[in-house]
Hints:
Low-confidence stretches: 1-5, 244-274
Radius of gyration: 18 Å
Largest sheet: 7 strands, mixed
Distance between the termini: 49 Å
Shape: globular
Order of helices and strands: EEEHEHEHEHEEHEHEEH
Strand content: 15-25%
Number of strands: 11
Mean pLDDT: 83
Structural class: alpha/beta
Amino acid sequence: MGKVSERPYRPVSSHLAIAPPVSIVIPAMNEAENLPYVFRSLPDWIHEVVLVDGDSTDDTVRVARALRPDVKVVEQRGKGKGDALISGFAACTGDIIVMVDADGSADGQEIVSYVSALVSGADFAKGSRFANGGGTDDMTPIRKLGNRVLCAVVNAKFGARYTDLCYGYNAFWRHCLDEITLDCTGFEVETLMNIRVVKAGLRVQEIPSHEYDRIHGVSNLRAVRDGLRVLRVILRERRVPRSVRSVRAVRRRPAGLRFTIPAVPVVPVAPTMPRGEVL
């Protein structure tokens, strides 16, 4: 038997403690005004924060380092969100990776639900705004319709059972990166990940999540342009056969990881700080 990890347990709540270190990846470009809220909402038991800077022209990097001196700042290669996430994933040292947007739309206290799903047996914890308990303040009717249609296409073509497709709040074991290849540059990266984890036979669990309005600034997402890019990814992936690894009978988990599972469900506590306010 291999040597058991000596990593200390990290108390997540009164019901749950974990040994696997958790890395948070935050792609950011000109998000200096939003970072105080984003960093403040993160739980204190995480292992590291990896900020991927997309050549910001404001004080994004300075603010990040002032808020969290131990933040790991990575210079993005390329220009799109896909490029940013690929750069961030490569810099992570944790066994669990969580993707969080820098616009303040994600509630960092939901991370405990994602981690709970992973240590309970899932490979990929996928956030959903349309699962029971989720919601969104930020989607226009046309974006909701487009997301619903594209989600239905992915479910029909790849045998998935997703309720949400184009959402960037996800978490996974780092070993999942060995099972999928990320080779797109823009906002379609989330769709590509969702398709390839299914094709690789990874165990996916949806996590109800609430998406809030961006606190400051304007999103770079463009519904029609990015919707067409997502559609192209779906059509391209339909022509690529499933990985032979999808038929594995036994999933591997990194050696030496230990965890305890709560006897009762963990219910995240809503943040007490008003959104957008920095103390």
